[in-house]
Amino acid sequence: MRLPYTFTSPDETQLQRRRYLLDTYGQVAQISALIPLLAYQLHRSLRILKRKLNTIRSVSRAKEHASPVTSNFGRQLAESQTSSWDRLAWLLDQEVLLGWGTWRVLLVAAFWTMWLFVLAISGTEDDYLHLTKRFGIIAASQLPLHYLLALKSSYSPISLLTRLSHEELNPYHRALGRILLIFLSLHASFYLNFYVQKSLLLKRIRDADVILGLLAITSLLILGTTALARIRRKNYLLFFTVHVALSISLLPILYFHVSHLRPYILESALIYALLILQRNVSQTSTPSATLAR
Question: Which uninterrupted H or E stretch holds 233?
Fold first, then answer.
């Protein structure tokens, strides 16, 4: 039986096309993150507009002295619709499992995982290594967004766009971290399978790019483990120390892993530098503000 993906031997033209598709789909994955953010902003704007229109209609009906029967019916219908939306909003805000976020976060994460998976397999045809590399670059394209979601500042671009606080955005930061871990684990597993199948493991395991790749996936597994709610709440200092140390070290590891990831790594490094700067400013401004009072 023929497997969906095979170990192909592409010529120079096919290698160039593969490189073009890898870079293109990585850019699409990164830019497409704007779509849910803009969709949320549109949804929020429509809710505000609807609220204002309902207020205007209520005032208008009161001025027209509508009949009691019509007023009661309209009020009951409006209350019924509002109640249904309130129940749905309440359900979406319930926690699924301890530390895994609400149903709302879970649904957004599931949608985003499926979208990234579509981008990971589209146009790969039967090229096993193309699929393997695609999982890696798709995951790397999400790193800047992952670091942006960690920004604890009212000037965070995502906070400004969505009007959500750091506490409200943090569950999405954790969810995206799990998605990155899944995609990069698939990337590493597929490569290791290729090396085993081609009897290249003993040779490639000593090369710098493979060593750095294994170091990166190990760091991510440690990050994901220490970020589990049970560990995070039991020993927050351990979680925080590991999180900061590995978040910093992961960027140079990936930077020197392969050159094609470097634009995303540099973007993430810039965001992380802003995060550190913001934390230092907030720590130094707090005592000054206290003295001023």
Answer: helix 229-234
